[in-house]
Amino acid sequence: MTNSDEVIGRINQHFEKDYQLRHAVRLAEWDQSLHVKAASLAARTQSVATLNALRRDNLVELMESCDLPAALRCAATRDQSCLREVDRYLRCHLTVPAELQDRKTRATSRAESLWADCRSRNDWESYAPALSAVVEVIRLEAQHRAEATGLELYDSLLDIHEPGLRIAQLKPAFEELKVWAIDILANSKPASTVAAQRRLLTIDDKEKLFLNISCVFGFDLTRGRIDFGEHPFCAGVPEDTRLILKKDSSILDGLLEVIHETGHACYEQNLPTSPRGHPINLPRSVGVHESQSLFFENMIGRHPAFLNYLSRTLSDKHQFPISADELNFYYNQTRLGLIRIEADEISYILHIILRFELELKLINGEIEVSDLPECWNILSVDYLGLSPGNDFRLGCMQDIHWSLGLFGYFPCYVLGQVYAAHLFHQFTATHQDYSSDFCSGNIRPAFDWLKEHIWSRGSCDEVLSVFMSSEKALDTKFLRRLLENRYKT
Amino acid sequence: MTNSDEVIGRINQHFEKDYQLRHAVRLAEWDQSLHVKAASLAARTQSVATLNALRRDNLVELMESCDLPAALRCAATRDQSCLREVDRYLRCHLTVPAELQDRKTRATSRAESLWADCRSRNDWESYAPALSAVVEVIRLEAQHRAEATGLELYDSLLDIHEPGLRIAQLKPAFEELKVWAIDILANSKPASTVAAQRRLLTIDDKEKLFLNISCVFGFDLTRGRIDFGEHPFCAGVPEDTRLILKKDSSILDGLLEVIHETGHACYEQNLPTSPRGHPINLPRSVGVHESQSLFFENMIGRHPAFLNYLSRTLSDKHQFPISADELNFYYNQTRLGLIRIEADEISYILHIILRFELELKLINGEIEVSDLPECWNILSVDYLGLSPGNDFRLGCMQDIHWSLGLFGYFPCYVLGQVYAAHLFHQFTATHQDYSSDFCSGNIRPAFDWLKEHIWSRGSCDEVLSVFMSSEKALDTKFLRRLLENRYKT
C-alpha cells in the first residue's frame, strides 16, 4: 500500500465520522425548525455547539495526522481532485480559530433570536447592536481567511459558499444585470391577480396537493419525509432528506415554493454516497444548489408547456380548477415589491444586488450597521423605485441571513439563476422535443439530464464546466435571453 | 482550590458534554420511533453509534484524568455522594470493553429488526439465532461485570438498572408475590367489559383528550411535546421531554397509558438540573422511574375517588359520557391474558416473574434460547393457567427487551409496583384528606409530595430510604395490602 492509499483511507474514515456527526446536527436543525419550544432552545443550542466542536476536532485530527501535499504528489490522477477538495474543505473549516468560531456562534445566536423578536415589533434600534457584533466577528473572520488565502476580504467569504468565484467576476456581471433588469421592469406591465388565486382548499387537501407535486418532481419518500412548518427549507442528509414546506402559503405561490424546495431535495438525494461524507461528494456550491431549485422552479415550473400539464392535474385531480392561461399569466408576470421572497425573477436580481452591494461595503468597513437603513432605502428607490421608509420589516430587517453571519452568500441566489439558465440552454439543445414532453407531464428527461451532469458529480470540478465556457467567465446572456422572452412586453 | 474542587470541576465539565451528546442521541431515538423510513435506518444507526462512541471517549478521558479515590478522601461531606455516584456511573459504563460493546450493538440491532419482522410472521425459527447471538454477548458482558464488581453473573446485570439490588433480595420477595398472586387470581371474577368501551371519538378528539389528560397530570408543554406513534414512551431530555402516546389505543385503555407515560415524563422534567448531566441528577433507577409512572397510573389513575373526577371530565368536557361506576368497574378488575402490556396489576406481577425466572436461567447457562418456547409455555400454564402454544407472538416473542439486550431489566417493573405502593402509603399517611382531593380533581398535592421526595432528589441515596425501612429490605406488604383491597372478591 502506498503512502497515498494510506492517507486516502484515513481521510475516508474521518469524513465518514464527519457525516455521522453532521447527520445529528442536521436532524437537530430540522427538529428546531418544527418542534422545539422556546424554553428548550438553550439546551438544544449547546448540544449542537458541542457536536460542531467535535466535528472540528475530527477535522483537526485529520489535518495533523496526514501529509496532504505529499499524498497529492504521488496520488493517481483519479484521486487528485478528491485530495484537492479535501484540502479546500479542511482549509475552509479550520482557518478560523476555535475561539473566534465560539464568539461567532454566540454573536449569531443572539442576533438570530433578537432578529425574530425585534422584527415582529419593527424595532431596529434594539436589534442593530446585535447585528454590529456579528459584523465585527465576520470582519475578523474575513481577515483570517484573507491572510490564509491571499484573497481580498470579501472574496475570502464568497469563497466559502462559491469556491473559486471572485468579486472581479461578479461585479461586471451584476452591473450588466442591474442596468438590464431596471430597464425591463420599467417596460413591463404591473402585476395583477387571477380569479383562481382566491379559491381555497382545506388544509388537508392543500398539504396532499403539495406532497403530490413534490413526488411528481422526484422527491423520494422512501428515504425522506415532508413536513409543514413556518419556513420552507431542505434539511437532513442525503440518506434521510427532510423537506419542510410552508404551511400557510397560498395555493399558487405555494406550488412554486414546493417545486423549488424539491429541486434542493433531489440534488441532495442524488449526490454520490461513496465514500460517504467525503467533500468530493458534497454539493458543488451554494450557487449550484440554488441552480437546481431554480431549474425546477423557473425552467420547468414556470414553463408554459408544463403549465398545461399542471392545469390539467390541478383541475382533474385536486379540486382546483384553473386554466393553463391563468397559470401562465400569474406565474410569468413581473411583481415589483419590497419583499425579496415574493419577487418575480427580474426584481429578484435587483433585491440580491442591493444586498450584495451593502454587505460588500460592510465587510470593507466603508459603512457601519448604523448606516444600513439609510443606504438600503436609497438603493431600494434606485433599483426598485420603492422605499421601505421606517418599516424595517420591509427593509434591512427582512432577511435572516446577516443575523446568521452569512456574508458572501446572497450573490449565490443570482448565480443560481445564471447557472440554471445555462443548464436549461444545454438541456434543451440536446432534448429538442422537451416542450411536448413538459406538456404531457414527462419531466423525467430533465431530471435524468441533471442527474447525469450535476447530481451524480458531487463536488467534481467538471461540474463547473457545464455552466461556463471557461472557468473564469460568468456569462449572463442565457439568463437575459430567457427572461427577455418571458417578460419583455 | 483543593484537589477535590479541581476534580469536581473537571467532572462537571465532562458530564455537561455527556448531557449534550445524550441530548442528540435521545432526539435521534425519538425521531426514529416516529419518522425514520426503512431506507434511512442504516445511516441513522451509524450516526447514533458514533455519538455513543464519543460519549464513551469522553467518560474514558474523565476516568483517566482524575483520581477519584483521592478526591473522595478529601471531599466535603456534601460532595461525597456525588463522587460515589460518578464512580458508579463510570464503572457501569466503562466495564464492558469497547470491542464487546460494538459486538453488542451489532447483535442487538440485528435482533431488534428481525424481532419486528419475524414476530409479524410468527417465525420463531428465523429469529432464534439472532437472539442466541445477543444472549452470547450478554453472557460475556455479565462475566466482565461480575469480575469487576465481585457480583454474581445476573446480579451484575441487575445492578445496571437497579443499583444495589441483588437476587438474594429479589427471589424471596418474588416467591412470596407469586404464590399470593396466583391465589388472588384464582378467587377473582373473570374480566368483563363496559358499554362505554365501545364508544368512539374522532382521532382529533381522542388526541385532544389524551393531551389534556397529560397536562392535567402535570406534563409541562412549555419544554416538551406530545406525539402519537406506534408505541408509547417517554424520550428526550429533561429540558426537552418528548412524550409519545399510542395512536391506536382504545379510549379507556389509552387513558391509563397516557397517565402512566406522563408519570415518567414528570419525573424527567422535574429532575435537578445543576450540574447538568451529572450522574447525581439522573433518575435513581429503572425501578424508581417505573414507580413514578405506576404511582400515576395505579395510585391515582385507578383510584375510585379520582375516577369520580375523571368521569365528570370525560362526560362534561370530552363528549365521552361514562359513569364513575363504569370506570371503576373497568379499571379495577383482573384481566387474565397472555399479553403482558394488557394485564391487570396482579397478573402483571406473574408475567414479570415468568420472564425473570427464564432470563436468570439463560444468563446462568441453565437453559438456551432453543429451550425458551417450551419453558415459557410450562411457566405460563403454572402461573396464568394459559398457554401460548405455538403462537410465539403471545409467548416468547411478545416483548422487545431481550432483542435489545435488556436482561436484569424486567424485574424493575415489579419493583416499580412495590415502590409505588410504599410511596402511596407514605403520601396518604401525611395527606389524610387525599381522597376528597382526588374526587375534586386536585392531584397537585401528590405531585408536590413526589417532587419533594423523589423528583428533586435525582440519584441521591436518600431516595431509597423513602421506599425501604432498611436499604436491604424489599417489603411487599404495602403492595399486597393495596391490591387485596382492590381485587379480592
Separate helix tally of chain A = 20
Series of secondary-structure elements of chain A, N-terminal to C-terminal = HHHHHHHHHEEEHHHHHHHHHHH
Percent strand of chain A: under 5%
Helix content of chain A: 55-70%
Main-sheet strand order of chain A equals: 1-3-2
Largest sheet of chain A: 3 strands, mixed
Class by SSE composition of chain A:
mainly alpha
Overall 3D form of chain A: globular
Q: Quick one: which chains have the greatest interface?
A: A-B, 31 and 31 residues
CATH fold name of the largest domain in chain A: Neurolysin, domain 3
> How many DSSP E strands of chain A?
3
Radius of gyration of chain A: 23 Å
CATH class of the largest domain in chain A: Mainly Alpha
CATH architecture of the largest domain in chain A: Orthogonal Bundle
Uncertain runs of chain A with pLDDT below 50, 5 residues or more?
none
Question: Which oligomeric state applies?
Answer: homodimer
Query: Kindly state the mean pLDDT of chain A as a whole number?
Result: 94
